[in-house]
What we know:
- The structure is a single chain.
- By secondary structure, this protein is mainly β.
- The protein starts with 27 loop residues before the first strand and ends with a strand.
- Mean pLDDT is 82; it is low at 1-19, 48-54, 64-70, 223-244 and 310-322.
Amino acid sequence: MTSSQLYRNARQGFYTDLTVDTTPVGAIVPNLKTGxxxxxxxxxxxxxxxxxxxxxxxxxxxxxKDNPAYTHEGYLYCNGDxxxxxxxxxxxxxxxxxxxxxxxxxxxxxxxxSGYTTLPLVGITAPGGNxxxxxxxxIVENGVIVRVDVVNPGSGYSSxxxxxxxxxxxxxxxxxxxINADDGSIEGITTANVMDWWGDPNLGTxxxxxxxxxxxxxxxxxxxxxxxxxxxxxxxxxxxxxxxYLDKSAQDEYxxxxxxxxTGYENVVETVECSxxxxxxxxxxxxxxxxxxxxxxxxxxxxxxPGFNSYQAEAGGDRYLQDYREGRGRLARWYPTGGVVFxxxxxxxRSPITDNTVASYDVFDAFGGAGGVGSLKxxxxxxxxxxxxxxxxxxxxxYVFQTYIPDPTMKQFTGSSNVGGRTVNTGGTPVYDYSDEWxxxxxxxxxxxxxxxxxxxxxxxxxxxxxxxxxxxxxxxGNPGGSSSIVVGSDLNLIADGGDGGGAxxxxxxxDGGDGGxxxxxxxxxxxxxxxxxxxxxGVNGQSAEGWLVADYPNNPGGGGAAGVAGDYGNGxxxxxxxxxxxxxxFTETLTSDGTFNTQGINNPSAVQFTVRGGNGGTARGNRVxxxxxxxxxxMISTQxxxxxxxxxxxxxxxxxNNGGGGNNPGTGGTNSMGANGGTGGTGHNxxxxxGGGAAGMILRGTQILGGAGGGGGGGGDGYDGGAGQNGQGPPSGYSQxxxxxxxLGPGAGGNGGNYGCIGGGGGAGGAGVAxxxxxxxxxxNGGASGGPGGGPGADGGHGGGSGGVSGVSSFRxxxxxxxxxxxxxxxxxxATLSVTYNNDYWTAGGGGGASGGxxxxSIQWSNLNNPGSISVIVGGGGAGxxxxxxxxxxxxxxxxGYVKIGLGKIVGYTGGSTGTSTGDIIASGSQSNTVWDVNIxxxxxxxxxxxxxxxxxxxxxxxxxxxxxxxxxATASVTVSSNKVTAINLDSAGGGxxxxxxxxxxxxxxxxxxxxxxxxxxxxxxxxxxxxxxSSTQYTNYVKFGGLSGTxxxxxxxxxxxxxxxxxxxxxxxxxxxGVNGxxxAEEVLRVYYQPADSTSWTLIDTIITPNSVRNDPLIGxxxxxxxxxxxxxxxxxxxxxxxxxxxxxxxxxTKIKIExxxxxxxxxNDNDADSDHYGICEFIYWNxxxxxxxxxxxxxxxxxxxxxxxxxxVQGETGPGITYSSGLGASEATLTLxxxxxxxxxxxxDPDIDVPLLHPYxxxxxxxxxx
Length: 1269
């Protein structure tokens, strides 16, 4: 029903702006009426002017049937009037004959005739060929045929058949038929075909609703279930089993519920179908009766053959077949002609014995016609314990009814489990999309949440590079790089170890190169593409004990080991030669007496210089001074520097000559320990004695003289005759400079001075010298003596003053030294000075090169990884470079950092091959599309975080629930868990009062498929044994995760493959609930369980199985709290429980499907449903069976129970369904049921008004119009 439009006419309720009327045909609108001044009271329309113009005249439209419909073009007044279908076919197409009228049946009466007192026969000509002749029946009113009802429209008519009426005592009637062009049948007018036949004058009639004095309330069809009520009161009828429902809050506070009474039962009388209930026991036994003939049967013929075996009385088997062979000879026919009727008897079995060698027999059948089933094994036994003797071992026995509990059906996932209904390709080359990719090049730890990806990957690509090791800085080893790794669930762990640092050098030995990082793996899945890192190169050995001396190698020798190379990441760095400084300096030592220079600690001299000084000559009378000692500075040539430290260096000091004294006491020469002594001065008159010559000073390497400085000549004394003496003289002619020679040098003493004559002065003595052999000089003048090699000769003495002595020769070995400077400038005791400039700095031997990190690079099938919830990533850093510092120079660089790249390849298509659909071993289908999933089967996780990474139960101890069995006190039990499964069950308490076996449920925790069988001691009424079915309990490896991006779907679900649930009384799931820390996110939504029978396409709700945010009373494990850590587990310890629902009777059948649904809102900004959130995990589905009674074969070797086969008892029940073994199959189809007040079927409520209820309710006067065109 639709409301009318706003009115613009001054007289409301009439001609409105319907030029924009878009109301659909069939809509009903109210037409409000005023008390006066309306067209159906005082005025009628006049003329045919168009809107908005309107002409009118006085009149009463209602009285002349000019109803208000004329003011609404296209509408009819809802007064129940009947209209021709041809006038308003569109309206008929919608409402048909729902409110009355009659559409054409396909045969239309054109003349009703007259005089018909009984119904005439309707004759319809037959169609040609294989057509079916139509039939019809005439309807007569007041002697006239008013219509014809088609009984069978027939088929195959190519044209309209002729219609004839016979009988009925009337005449003149005629009719025509309408034919369907497609199948040649007689076709009536319906809402479906009215437009096909529009224009036919005989379409029939229809009525509009009669809404006079009625009010339309509610929606839908006009004559619906609801009834109009005053005010806002609401009565809903027929919504729940025919009961009336009154909602007080909707009654406008008119009513309160009063006393509930039941009335009107006696008025309910109905014919109903009934089911037969109850039971009847039927006993069956063999009746001894004479048969009219032998039943059809066959014989096996045995004949004897000659043999030597004798019959053994105790032989087993059938003794009548001893020494017989099958198939020899012929069987002769035999016809009985009279005599005794032989009898025998059979035992009764509830089911045939499958072993055809088993039969009972009579051991006393020595005569024909022995009766009975067979001989009793022990005739003295009690009747219930008697047995017939029978052949056969375990095949012998009988079938008995036993009550037992069938094993539950338990479904657990394996590594190869998948969800059905998803796209798979065979033989094609997949096209991958690697848009989900993560790259890490900075050292650290990372986690990839795989729950946020859309779709399901097909391959995981990986590149893992360990950090590179740093090179060694000479004798300081490099550092190793850190390892990089990825951990994918619990199945794959790839480790790329860091490269080792370069090895340190040791003295002259170069350092070893570092070992390349290894590429290793662990986990159940084997990956490929591993490559160990490249080793670093070895450092080059040094040239000396330290390595390379800087004195020899001023530049870096470049002997560091090469770096191991991995590519762009994880490279090692090169080793270096470390420059060790602080080892150079200058050494100076002066000796003024004989001794050895202290050169300890001096290495690698770069310059060696000796300064040697000879002793000066003495002074004579008249202050005739002696000549100064020689000062010779010599530098060691470079070729000898390396030999400097290999020999000891010493000095032999030359002392100065003594002055000439008085009293004929000439000056003695200076002394030298190696004989290079100065000469003695000549004797002079009185105190005019000559002075002594100076001794030479020498430098020795070991015992070898390598240089010497001559002593100065002594002065000659003044004579007393006035003759002047002479100062000491320099070296002999030609030796004013030191003699450079490669010949051996030796010491030479100075010559003595000549003595005086008369009153003259003594001559000065010659200074000592150092020279090669052959360098000598004769004495001078009067008495001057010759010196030794290089020694200066003594000076002449005489009547006048004495001459001065000549200084000694200075020499050096030119193969050791070069002359730096020379002078005669020393007075006093001779000495020697050693000055050494040395450089002990060195380059170490080469440090080893750092190695590169290990490398993983490749891909792996995603399905092999059990769909992990996350990937843990570690990127190893490069080994730190080496910078020893201090007095060293040089450092190595850091090793290259590691690298990790992860990509998830999703198949977006295939090239070639064939595409099909996956078949799930447990799950038939899942939510979303066949390529985008939000439920999936994944492997074991860590049980940490909230990404859907649940850890399967491995150590959680299951609980044992023992119920039923008629117990007055329940037995209790516990289980032992080992190797992640149940390995033993322990009966802790036997309970009491048991009359039958109880149900034993192993719930919660570790061990999938665990089955327990119980036995009861009937006499004691206790459980006497609990048996764990061998190998039934297994370790969980996978679970189905409710999680992943929901896209636009919201709700998640899985449907399970069909299962025979005929005897199933409970359905359970072993599941975990996310709590934010146990591996999953807290779910706001419940989990529901639905079922679908094999012959249906609809799902029926069983119950809600998990309520995360409210307490639930589970039918098997009891109270389940809201989500929390105490129940659902802490970080790293996900807890799993077995949640159950009772299986409805209607769900117990062969081929029943189960659906588990997580109802979620469509993702939006108001929720978190567009993320991988709201997690559940399910690792097992269990269909528990209730007790059943059935036939069980009880073997009794060599015998058959007599009471079991003499007679059989059957309990036949009226009911059918689960638990009913034998049903009568009877039913009652027409039972008369009359209700009585003593039998309360369905109460009705009466209401007591709180205030006066208005019986008359004011309504605005209204007429309803229906849109017709």
